[in-house]
Design goal:
Blueprint: E1 8-9, E2 19-21, H1 45-48, H2 54-61, E3 66-68, H3 71-77, E4 85-87, H4 89-95, E5 100-105, H5 116-128, E6 133-138, H6 142-153, E7 157-163, H7 164-169, H8 171-179, E8 183-187, H9 193-201, H10 209-221, E9 226-228, H11 235-241, H12 243-255, E10 261-265, H13 270-284, E11 291-297, H14 302-305, E12 307-312, E13 321-326, H15 348-355, E14 360-364, H16 366-380, H17 386-405, E15 410-415, H18 423-430, H19 441-448
Length: 455
């Protein structure tokens, strides 16, 4: 057993997980079915075939506990996996807490985030199915970057619609996507019916992930050699991300430590599910007693203030209906800097787990998140992406509670990406120009009024 006071816990490539974990197999009840947007009946594989290869459709609906990772995917994973588990000794000292704080760092991937964990297998399965091009949306740009990288590995073209506010805030993200070979458009765009409809109503629209999804889906559905790829929300995406939590379990076993609290940021849910689902398996089996907490933006609070209801995954209503915590598919979130968390809904699987009472959720204001990000950078030496600063803020809050109570809790989070291309946001915070936006009740009520009826 390793010294539990080490700074980083590493795994050898030979210890990398060779299976993805499917939480559905171990839940006390199955999630509600996904419904066809026209018939409102449960969808079948044929309904998804215009957008996804059959291999991913099978993973989306499987009840098997584990799914083998193809060798060609493992070969690409080895560029950065296994990722390190760090103990934040310097942050602990700065906080004066008896708690131990650990973070699983996914910023070591080629794209700088956790997103390639699913982008690589999605590109692989599409290439194997004979697809030539992938379309997608992206918020902060992490997903668009990851899919462009993954598409290049398997000889595919990649076309990305990025939420306009993030597109304008992060010009270097566009260059990175183009360097990997992707084509990128600001959304809403004039290239699709969905985009033109939004611009007709609001020429200055900041965009949203829901709008960008509509544009990418519209293009994919209209071309037989093109499929759509989604970076979060869906079951198969969260499945692929479980390599994060599976590795973390092995790393904690090496030092003989078990976490008491796990905190992850949530937008659509892929990073949070990837970290926590393997630990939740252990909790459901009675092998681990752990509190699991989701951290989301105050301005886009789908878990803490959204309604658990059937809703479209996109703004135009092109996608199937999913039962999830939602702010309404018409909801346009405030253009906060954590673009990856600006989504109106939450993963149906995470929403179901939340309804079962297996996880908690908190909402954090933007300025508190960036304060945590700066504190982390000045102690641990990594500038975090704006998204995981939400989890870092919640970790710091927990660690400060431990300072008051004297409890030596073990806290784990996923630092799901670095913020090297988000420095303009840090600049706004450091200059005192950052504001917090609390979602007004009337704005939320108006968006929820547009939910599909009679469901």
């Amino acid at each position: 057993m390793m010294d539990r006071n080490v700074t980083k816990v590493l795994l050898d490539e030979s210890e990398m997980p060779r299976r993805w974990y499917n939480l559905v197999a171990d839940l006390p009840s199955a999630p509600p079915p996904v419904l066809h947007p026209g018939t409102r009946a449960p969808i079948g594989p044929d309904d998804l075939a215009p957008l996804f290869p059959m291999s991913l459709i099978e993973q989306e609906v499987t009840a098997e506990r584990y799914v083998d990772i193809p060798e060609d995917v493992l070969d690409v994973y080895r560029l950065w996996r296994p990722s390190p588990l760090y103990r934040a000794h310097r942050l602990e000292k700065a906080l004066g807490t008896p708690a131990q704080i650990y973070y699983k760092y996914e910023g070591v991937s080629p794209a700088g985030s956790h997103k390639p964990n699913t982008a690589v297998p999605q590109a692989y399965y599409n290439a194997r199915a004979g697809i030539r091009r992938l379309t997608t949306e992206t918020g902060a740009g992490q997903w668009g970057t990851a899919l462009s990288f993954a598409a290049a590995q398997f000889g595919l073209e990649c076309e990305v619609w990025q939420v306009r506010s993030s597109y304008d805030q992060k010009p270097y993200r566009k260059i990175m996507i183009e360097t990997f070979g992707g084509v990128i458009h600001p959304s809403p765009s004039t290239l699709t019916e969905a985009g033109r409809a939004v611009l007709e109503k609001d020429p200055g629209s900041p965009g949203s992930l829901g709008i960008a999804i509509s544009e990418a889906v519209e293009v994919a559905a209209g071309h037989p050699d093109t499929n759509y790829a989604l970076g979060s929300v869906l079951n198969h995406v969260l499945l692929h991300q479980t390599v994060i939590g599976e590795e973390a379990l092995l790393q904690f076993a090496k030092i003989g430590v078990t976490p008491d609290v796990i905190v992850g940021c949530t937008g659509g849910g892929s990073n949070f599910g990837g970290l926590t689902f393997p630990f939740l398996r252990e909790k459901l089996a009675g092998r681990l007693d752990v509190t699991i907490r989701a951290a989301e933006p105050v301005s886009c609070p789908s878990l803490t203030r959204g309604r658990y209801a059937y809703d479209f995954g996109d703004t135009a209503g092109l996608t199937p209906l999913m039962k999830m915590h939602t702010l309404g598919h018409d909801f346009i979130p405030d253009p906060i800097h954590a673009g990856g968390l600006r989504y109106h809904g939450m993963s149906p699987l995470i929403s179901h787990v939340y309804e079962l009472g297996l996880i908690e959720a908190v909402a954090v204001p933007q300025s508190e998140c960036f304060a945590a990000g700066v504190r982390f950078a000045r102690t641990e030496g990594i500038v975090p992406a704006p998204e995981p600063t939400h989890a870092l803020a919640a970790c710091i809050e927990e660690a400060l509670r431990c300072r008051e109570t004297g409890e030596p809790k073990v806290i784990l989070t996923a630092l799901c990406g670095h913020g090297h291309l988000d420095l303009a946001a840090y600049g706004a915070y450091l200059a005192g120009e950052m504001t917090d936006h609390a979602l007004p009740a009337d704005q939320l009520d108006a968006a929820l009024a547009g939910l599909p009826q009679a469901l």
